[in-house]
């Protein structure tokens, strides 16, 4: 994004909402947006941007469909803006593009940016890293080995919601979540950017006078609007916690570190590319395919062999 | 891996097996391994390595549990080796570590390497890119928006299996898969490495006299062992197709290109790191956090500002 715009970021509350397919998280995101636009008496209305990220679909079918459904609900309200992002090319590219869009909404003055991701893999963890507050949506009875999947997501959850709470098995899901939370929390939250200087720098840990944040486990039935107000309150409570504890700043720093490193990497590769002829690269690759040299030897050949490049 | 070992790779049939949680793909992988070890009369026994990759779980709980279950089935047979990989750090790191382990099994002489991945995101696509043959496992009735998820995976599927085929809804799942296949296939298969020289080079397409490969849609009930022999045959048929069409070589080339680029990137970053003091990096990062400069300006400061580095 433009550097001029960047100076105007840092005000929006970035809320990540993630969960496996079938949890109804899109509906929940819609309801949350509607709540912010039409709050009950005594609460302030807020402008909302929704960024719907689909890391699994190189086709955009799902995401576009989601948009259509939403537009019917929320269209005509200038305080709501919706943008879909689908994976084109690499995952890193998606996280990067999402970060730019989120920053643009932030600079444009949206007070809340809801970043919705599908699934429960590293992709979602990467996207969630953008957020100040991460909401993980579950639903009763989603499959046998779903528990194993959840482990990674729980590490990043600030608020947990069991949606479709009118379905059988909701108590089991809640219990499983609470058990897993006990394993993962409360421990001092570590803000570990995947930074290139990680070993050299102190890893920043949340050390403050406040008790550590314990993710609440909520229930909702998004299709009926039940539990939406409670979710909005829990999100606000987490934001207040971030402000008071100083974690807001720590999260920001970890986030920028990740972004900076990704940009550095891109730039370093681009510089190298400009100096190595494609024919050279191709002939070295061919030697790897023929098993004459290993990929590691190929890298040596492409870098040190051409020392003049540097 | 050691360059000496690398020279001995290229013989194993690398088979990726992926699918959403709850499809029973681990059981199917076990059964497939058992089939290769105890084939029916007239077929040759083959040694099998299983690499179980879990991109979603920074904890290793799930993967380790999977191992235990498997060990009971297949332990004591020196022709089977099982290795679990869980995500530690970045996704790229996992794909890279998996590639090394797969190559080690290949060099060690295992005839079939089954690479099992959980889920349906970019992580799985990256890992599947390692494989010669990719099997996508589905199951009836896994959720509302699962269809959207599948789109990305279908692009990489060489063989499709509807497991748990004794459950209701199997015809619907098969029909949905066939419909999606019609959208995605048959088109000339493009072996597109995410190469740095992609724009400059011709993208290699499969152009040969053979008709294009159409992924078969099979049924199985892995817990009962049903459909396992048919799956093994389809995998072998795909391997024969790769050999005859020349696609084997194209896949190898695309795979090495991806690996080579990842290594190049790591090396470029490492070189840069060795030349920039951590204190400099830290002060630039701080300016970003304070919104004094944008991440893009920070990169400029870290590269061009220190021109002497280069």
Structural class of chain A: alpha/beta
The major β-sheet of chain A equals:
7 strands, parallel
Helix content estimate of chain A: 40-55%
Number of domains in the coordinates of chain A? 2
The CATH architecture of the largest domain in chain A is: 3-Layer(aba) Sandwich
Shape descriptor of chain A: globular
**CATH C-level name of the largest domain in chain A:** Alpha Beta
- Find the CATH superfamily of the largest domain in chain A: P-loop containing nucleotide triphosphate hydrolases
By DSSP, the count of extended strands of chain A is 9
Description:
Two copies of one chain form a homodimer. Chain A has 310 residues and is α/β, with parallel strands linked by helices. Chain A folds into two domains: 3-264, P-loop containing nucleotide triphosphate hydrolases (Rossmann fold), CATH 3.40.50.300; 276-309, no CATH class. Helix content of chain A is 47%, strand content 15%. Chain A is built from eleven helices and nine strands. Chain A has a seven-stranded parallel sheet, with helices on both faces. In chain A, strands 7-8 form a two-stranded antiparallel ribbon. In chain A, α2 packs parallel to α3, α2 packs across α8 (228-245) and α10 packs antiparallel against α11. The first copy, chain A, is globular. The two termini of chain A are 30 Å apart. The model of chain A is unreliable at 57-69, 144-149, 187-194, 198-203 and 306-310 (pLDDT under 50). The interface between A and B is large, with 88 and 88 residues.
